[in-house]
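Suppose you are handed a protein chain with no further information: no name, no annotation, nothing but its sequence. What can you learn? This example shows the usual starting point.
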Amino acid sequence: AGVAMVGGKIFVFGGRSQDVELAGINGFSASVTLDSVECYDPDRDIWTNLPKMTYERCETVAVVL
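A reasonable first move is to predict its three-dimensional structure. Written in structure tokens, the prediction is:
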């Protein structure tokens, strides 16, 4: 997942998640690449789901200048 802090809020996007439905089939383990974007506001201790990215991404890097 990519992570960036902007304006005191933490944004997390993309990454991989274990596909639980496929994990038990003949010992097969599958991961799903994510298109999700979430924002954490530490002042309010609240996570917010933001609009999804156009494409799934994993192993991303974020830079804030």
